[in-house]
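To: structure desk
From: M.T.
Subject: fold request, one chain
Message: Could you run this one when you get a chance? Sequence is below, nothing fancy, just the single chain.
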Amino acid sequence: MEMKRILAVGVILLFVGVTIAPAIAQNTEKSQTSRGNWLYVGGNGPGNFSTIQDAIDHAYNGDTIFVYDGTYNEQLTIDKQINLIGEERETTVINGNYAYDTDIIYVTADQVLIQGFTIQHADIYSYCLVFVDCTHHTISDCHFFENKRQAIMLLRSSDNTISHCTITECKIGIVINNEFSDNNIISDCYIATENQGLGVGSSYNIVSNCTLLGGGMDLTDGMNNSILNCRIANQQGSFGLQLGYTTNNTFRNNSLEHCGIIFHGNFPYEFYQDIDSSNVIDGKPVYYLRNESNQEFNESMNPGYIILVSCRNITIRNITCHGITLGDTSFCGIENCSFFENILGVDIWLSSNAIISNCSFSYDSAISIRKSSHNIVKQCMMPNGSPSSFGVSIDYYSYNNTVYDCDIEDYPIGIYISGSSQQNKICNCSVSHSRITGFKIWESDNMITKCHIYDNEVGITLWNSNNFIVLNNFINNHLQVNVSGTNTWNNDSMGNYWNDYHCFDLNSDGIRDLPYQIGSGNKDQKPLMQPFQKIISKPTGKHLYINDNTGFYIRLTPFGNALILGGISIDVTDNDWIKVEFYIDNELKNIDTKSPFQWLWIEKGLSKHVLRVIAYKDFRNSVIDEIKLIKII
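Reply: Done. Structure tokens follow.
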């Protein structure tokens, strides 16, 4: 009898064990975040759902949906407070199949957790994962793969955490959009994208311990964000970090590789940032100065990038770095520097009286001048621009800037003037092999003079009136000029040289006898017979000469003219000329046939003059140069 009782108890225990074991197994799949019931998708369990959306539709706030390994070809809408957990990240796949204009996961509820999935194949009009008008989400340990638009978009969505996620082969990584998406944390993510890696358009967000490859980080609008311990490695000629119209952000211990920094700002405070030298570019420190004056940077400091904000009288010389930004800064000198691997070499905002001289730029856009006036760019070399770059851009209400003696070659656009920028002067520059146009001028009242414009797709593109284009050489451009509006192409005595014009010169004054027709009501009334060439070595513009002594540079001489007190020797560069003619106000004053070619001008007077020199290589070929000057006595 006793034996029967023992046997009965054993059978009962065996039955209970078999019944309880599956429940215990399922409980091991539950995380500590569980707030309600568990629902299962895939796998072999009784009552498991075959699609994730089915499980979401049957869930309540606080439920957890566990998804077994497999590929789920669907798009999800989550409008409940749930946990969505994948069995294993790389083998639990939500596949959007590039469905047109349909987000793969669209979330509108608060407090959603998404963990342990590969989410892939969103089309160009769709987001991979988007949160709209909701808060307090957690996205962790997910892989976003092969998406043609943003991997993650936070739209009016705050207080979220994104951690330990991988984003690869996507066009854009993570975007935190507009001022209603604050207080988010992004940490320990690996983001390798085609374009932008991370965009932050809001405030009080923290990005830490992230790696961005291929695409940079863009902070536009917002304020008081923190970027900590991040690595940004970008393709040559692109930005690593872009700061636009944003303020009071903190940057610590970040490392940029093969890229640089660019700014955008309408007001000085939009350049106020907390950046210290713990941030490096290719191992070299980033220097940020604000409200400093009378300092010098040189090669011994080995900077990776320099940012000057509200500074005065700073000199930067003999360095090689990824770029310089001037914001609300005046009287800065940048001399003998080289710039490389950034979308922009020297970026000038809200600044005045800077002089950039004898600098070289490689690959990307060289110099941008925006909302800035009375700056000078001289004797700079700008070869080989990238496919979307420019040599010099003068934009956004920039006035009275001067670019001279620069060599700009092989850019899509050599020099670009736009944004209501006027009274700027481009002089003695060589602009060649531009793939779109040598000059693109959208505004009026600018001057282009004594430039050598050759072998461009278009020499000059003009989309406004009242610009002054005189004494330039237009040679072998596919189209010399593309013009809309009426502009001035000659002064009282000379116009430009056009290599495709062969009209006669019966009076041998060096001017062709019929105008050069440019189109749309424009014509050069005094086209030159021979190319213009800089051959006057003394005097030069913006210099003061006293009784023929060496010229002193004076920044603000009237109209940039040379200022002459007493007699002066007019000197011409020696180039095996057979004859050199010297003219004052179109009147021949002297002819010299022997080297050194010069003429001592001792006439007295108080007036403004035009000095013109014609140098002859032989009896048929000559070049012309002229300079405006003021003679005092």
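Reply (cont.): The CA atoms of residues 105 and 129 lie 5 Å apart. Let me know if you need anything else for the meeting.
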